Amino acid sequence: MSETIEKTNSINQPRYGCSLGSLYTAAAIPRVIPITHCGPGCADKQFTATAFYNGFQGSGYGGGSVSPSVNASEKEVVFGGAERLSELISATLKVMDADLYVVLTGCIADLVGDDVGSVVSKFQQKGVPIVYAETGGFKGNNYTGHELVTKAIIDQFVGDYDGPKEEKSVNVWSLVPFIDTFWRGDLEEIKRILEGIGLKVNILFGHESNGVEEWKDIPKAEFNLVLSPWVGLELAKHLEKKYNQPYLHIPVIPIGAQETSDFLRKVGEYAKVDSEVVESFIKKEEDYYYYYLENFSDFYSEYWWGLPAKFGVVSDSAYNLALTKFLVNQLGLIPGRQIITENTPEEYQDFIREQYTHIADDVSTTVDFIEDGYTIGQELLKTDFGYKPPLLFATTWDRDIAKEINAGILEIGFPASYEVVVNRSNIGYRGALSLLEKIYTTAISTSA
To answer: Cis omega before residue 415 (within 30°)?
Structure first.
């Protein structure tokens, strides 16, 4: 955080949920049922925040009201809830069909010291496909919980492997399900373009995943791809030790032809894919992309005088960096303010700051790490966006500030309560086109 920004001891308008919100990491895997060992209302609040008032994404096969919960009371606080959890798991196995069950703990279970591992191990010994992760809220936020859950599934369910690797196969670790509003469509686009250059892709979450069978194939992959500034890096390092699997880290999620083509060339070179195959796919996709961009240019050349010149981004680091690169390099906009909100671990912050020093060959900017909504608002009010209405890529929390600075707002992160998201994507070749539509519809609506 910049020294000019006042630090606070409280967080207003948070941009994430607690670690228990990672029950939606489990729910994002086809035919997986999360079981929560927490107090009444904890799991429901995670659904309301993460999956409902965040693009109204829906609960899926195992989320929302489907997820079984201990609903711990005073009795479980005083005497422990291990017995109640065991009863719940037994009942769940009788009435809920799943390929894998994931037990997640809340604050109560972790504070009173319930031996959840012992409870779950009794079912594991009977051959039940079940794992557990200690995800009490004080462990961190959704991003922390996401890594805890993925590691638990790999270590307790996927298990050891020392067999051969499958050539040109990759595990993708990128956007976090549900907390990243557009994760479904974005992961589908990532898989589509990677398959387009000839890779076998384990995307692991969402409709394009083959569920737990795909997770069992994780050790067989030739390498891991971490496509985010920091989420997934610790897991990739763990897999490197566990399965002798190398990993490729690309911090910028690609948006638009320029960034996506560069991304595919990097991955193709790393995976030793025939360059002719890579370039053939890129040409086909760029022809598609620039056909529509050429027609879009009529609008741009006519209305350029009334369009925004500057922008601000208030979001998680993955979307913040990706959008900033796209808006500068593809649209020629000027970065006004970049604020990252997901409580990025300090060990990654300098690395992320460095990415903003070379957004383009001749463009450098700075980024701040701020969690508190009030502080974010004050920083936006102090920012000079020029005389034209800027574009603000942010959240529902920032709508009032957008009005004060006369900005057109696009909700691109948690919470997004004025967006209905089915499977929309903003990344790659295809997602960038729909993003362009959204950007300039907002721009001309704001200037009208």
So the answer is: yes
The answer to the question of residue 263 being in a domain is no
Dig out the tokens for 81 from the structure.
């809830």
String of DSSP letters for 370-393 = ---HHHHHHHHHHS---SSPPEEE
Q: Does residue 79 sit in helix, strand or coil?
A: helix
Rounded to whole angstroms, the Cα distance separating 53 from 251 reads: 28
What are the start-end ranges of the E strands in 152-220?
Answer: 166-173, 200-202
At 53-103, the pLDDT tens digits run 999 999 888 988 889 999 887 777 766 789 999 999 999 999 999 999 999
- Report which secondary-structure segment, H or E, holds 26: helix 23-27
Tell me 255's DSSP state: B
Decide if 279 is inside a domain.
no
148 and 170 part of one domain: no
- Encode pLDDT of 161-198 as tens digits: 999 999 999 999 999 999 999 999 999 999 999 999 99
What is the pTM assigned to this prediction? 0.94
Longest dimension (CA), the chain: 71
Q: How many domains does the chain have?
A: 3
Same domain for 439 and 301: yes
Q: Flag whether 2 is in a domain.
A: no
CATH number at residue 217: 3.40.50.1980
Please write down the HEC assignment for all residues of 323-386.
HHHHHHHCCCCEEEEEEECCCCCHHHHHHHHHHHHHCECCECCCCEECCCHHHHHHHHHHCCCC
Q: How far is residue 338's CA from residue 336's CA, in Å, rounded to a whole number?
A: 7
Residue 266's identity, in one-letter code, is K
Residue 362: partners with Cβ closer than 8 Å, 6 or more residues away: none
Q: What are the beta bridge partners of residue 312?
A: 337, 392
Asked whether residue 203 falls in the same domain as residue 224, the answer is: yes
How does the average pLDDT of the chain come out, rounded? 93
